[in-house]
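Handout, section 3.2

Students often ask what a structure token actually looks like in practice. Rather than define it abstractly, here is a full record for Transglutaminase-like domain-containing protein. The first block is the sequence as you would receive it.
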Amino acid sequence: MRPPYPPPPERSAELRRRFAEEARSERPDLSTLCLLVGAEADGALDEAGLDAAQMELDRLAGRVPFRPGGSMAWATALHHLLGVQDGFRGFPADYQRLESSLLHEVLRRRRGLPILLSVVWMEVARRAGAPVYGVALPGHFVVGFGPQEQQVLVDPFDGGRVLGVGDAELLVAGATGAALDPSMLSPADPLDVVLRILNNIRAWAAARPERSDVSLWAVELSLLLPSHPARLRYERAQLLVQRGDFVEGAVELEEYAELIDAVDEGAAERVRGQARSARAMLN
């Protein structure tokens, strides 16, 4: 197995308990949740490492000019600090690395996926007092500053370049072929950001069948979020069967079949057939 290596079971159980507790808190902390995802992926990330990552975000925030002004001034200040001076940005090759979805590694490498780089921008700017939030454009996460009527968008993957309306339209058209809808520019909920990060990790692992371990923990963390797609239970069941845990996988398939039986009897029966096939593998 290639690094990063997962933590031992006892450590994983503790991390998941803390992840679930934070996700269900009144105001979930985005950086904490992202770092707990990183610790679930990387057994080398201990408590000292978690603290060090938070302190690095604090250190970067301490270098932001004191309340530089309006939305554009905040965007420019963060671009100059993080994008120009510190070199945080992304490259196409970063999509091929699991580390690009792990906050502690993005802080170390100063490279990552758009959404993780956006988390760095958001967390540094928030600590510095900026009116900042994530903007979950289809296919490309960016960061917004200020109220919607004065909104300034930046692309952390491109070093924090300020985006005009035309730039945002091109990003959406390139990802979906559709037009930019104003609703796409609304602030993203922190838990939706975390789910999207976990979806990216699952997509990375799905292309690498030998890393079904990553697929499994990413699904299981997603299931700990207060709101998640029900189909993730089906995905977890399939992963369990794929990894040779036929009994638990079959039980999970049967429970999922019961869940969907009222809305799609045909699909439920097909899932029950998969459960029977999984149990037959024990013979």
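Discussion prompt for tutorial groups: The chain is about 60% helix and 5% strand. How would you have guessed this from the sequence alone?
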